[in-house]
Amino acid sequence: MYITVFDLLGSQLKALVGRPRWKNISQANRALIAGVVIIAVLLLLGGTAVATPYHYVPLVTLGIFCGAVLATVLAQFLA
Question: What is the count of structural domains for the chain?
Fold first, then answer.
């Protein structure tokens, strides 16, 4: 019996799905990754709003994103 590329990909997919990788990362590294992602999204949306003639869509998206992030952080402190 031959092993195909699909067999190899299927076994790798089963290995990835079987274990949650985000929980294996330490809490400090998760906070660092989340901070970098938040800053990257803010810069990407802000830069898009400045560089393109369509300002409203990136700014509305930026407002929703900032509101969701702020709500999540404040909900943890106010709980």
Answer: 1
List pLDDT tens digits, range 18-58: 665 777 778 888 888 888 888 999 999 999 999 988 889 99
Gap between the terminal Cα atoms of the chain: 58
Give residue 46's domain range: 5-78
Between CA 40 and CA 32 the distance in angstroms is 12
- Residue 58: which of 67, 45, 47 has the closest Cα? 45
What DSSP character marks residue 1? -
Note the residue count of the chain: 79
The Cα 64–Cα 66 span in angstroms is 6
CA 20 – CA 42 distance, rounded (Å): 27
